Amino acid sequence: MFKNILEIPFDTSIWLLVLTAWVLVWKGLALWKAARENSRWWFVALMVINTLGILEILYIYVFSKPGFLTGKKENKSSAGEA
Predict the structure, then answer these.
(1) Residues 6+ apart with CB under 8 A from 64
(2) Whole-angstrom Cα distance, residue 29 to residue 27?
(3) CA-based nearest residue to 47, from 30, 64, 66, 65
(4) Are 43 and 35 in contact (CB under 8 A)?
(5) Where are the alpha helices (DSSP H) in the chain?
């Protein structure tokens, strides 16, 4: 179809840049959170599997511990008190 990447219409190039930025932001945040939580398998899965940010968003908001990006913080000091 296109012999050279420079032949891609300008509209398509803009959308590719926007999509790339979207994926990089979510992947970066999810990888950061997985590394901070010592979730090695999640880190590997997030690094290898490309789902346009869907898996990354699910990891951040569904599968990981609350806090960091969700606004919810665990109160660790009150767990020992009773």
Answers:
(1) 33, 34, 37, 39, 42
(2) 6
(3) 30
(4) yes
(5) 10-36, 40-48, 54-58, 76-80
Query: Can you give the pTM of this predicted structure?
Result: 0.64
pLDDT along the chain (82 residues), means of 10: 65 82 93 93 90 88 76 52 45
d(CA 71, CA 63): 15
Query: Both ends of the chain: CA-CA distance in Å?
Result: 69
Q: What is the CB neighbour count within 10 angstroms for residue 10?
A: 7
**CA dist., res. 57 & res. 55, Å (int):** 6
Longest distance between any two alpha carbons in the chain, whole Å: 70
- Phi/psi for 44 (5° steps) reads -65, -45
